[in-house]
Design brief:
The chain is of the alpha/beta class. 39% of the residues lie in helices and 19% in strands.
Length: 215
């Protein structure tokens, strides 16, 4: 697929690298087309780089890997017309580090960042996933032993099926992909972040994940 990854931070670059390795045509989107780090990454990975709008316009699928506090602005820069009808994978978390650690988790209007994105861009097909783990585990679940899981939720079943296919290609087996139903499920997964951050401090590493044993 032609996939736009919006965001040039560690998460965006990690996801972009994995997608390139799987044979997808990736364009990394940033605020400006002359972002030196993104340009260097694109050259190294035989990918492309451009503005958010450049990336989204020709893509079949869009990944929002920007920080949650700036996601709406980034997606507005990408252009609603460039998101219309497309699967939009949201991996963002709205974390406010302005007062240091631990950050505050921002819950827009008592809901979730994913729901706010869906309301703002009703033509997009938003699916929330991968936001409850560090980026290395996102693309290589075998780094963590055991039957840990990845959550997915969204209002469009066909869009979720597309995203589930991508998760499988990342190495997530079907039995460890937990569908939480509609997009309100993102309220729960985004609110896992305070626990995740506390565990990271306790363990001294980010390479862990949540398992959900069931009787």
């Amino acid at each position: 697929m032609k996939i736009a990854v919006l965001g040039t931070g560690e998460v965006g670059r990690r996801l972009g690298s994995k997608l390139v390795s799987l044979g997808h045509e990736v364009i990394l989107g940033s605020r400006s087309a002359d972002h030196a780090g993104a340009t260097a990454w694109a050259a190294e990975h035989q990918a492309a780089h451009g503005t958010f709008a450049d990336a989204a316009s020709g893509a079949e699928l869009v990944v929002n890997a920007t920080g949650g506090l700036v996601s709406l602005a980034a997606l507005q820069a990408a252009g609603a017309e460039n998101l219309e009808g497309k699967v939009l994978v949201d991996v963002s978390n709205a974390l406010d580090f302005s007062q240091g650690m631990p950050p505050k988790v921002v819950t827009p209007e008592g809901g979730s960042m994913a729901e706010q994105i869906q309301r703002t861009f009703p033509g997009a097909r938003v699916v929330k996933t991968l936001n409850t783990m560090t980026n290395t585990v996102m693309v290589d679940p075998g780094r963590v032993p055991g039957e840990h899981v990845v959550f997915v939720c969204g209002d469009d079943d066909e869009a979720k099926a597309v995203v589930t296919g991508l998760l499988r290609s990342f190495g997530w087996p079907d039995e460890r992909i937990l569908d939480l139903g509609d997009l309100t499920g993102a309220r729960a997964t985004e609110l896992l972040l305070p626990l995740w951050l506390r565990l990271m401090g306790t363990f001294g590493t980010a390479e862990f994940n949540f398992a959900v044993p069931k009787a």
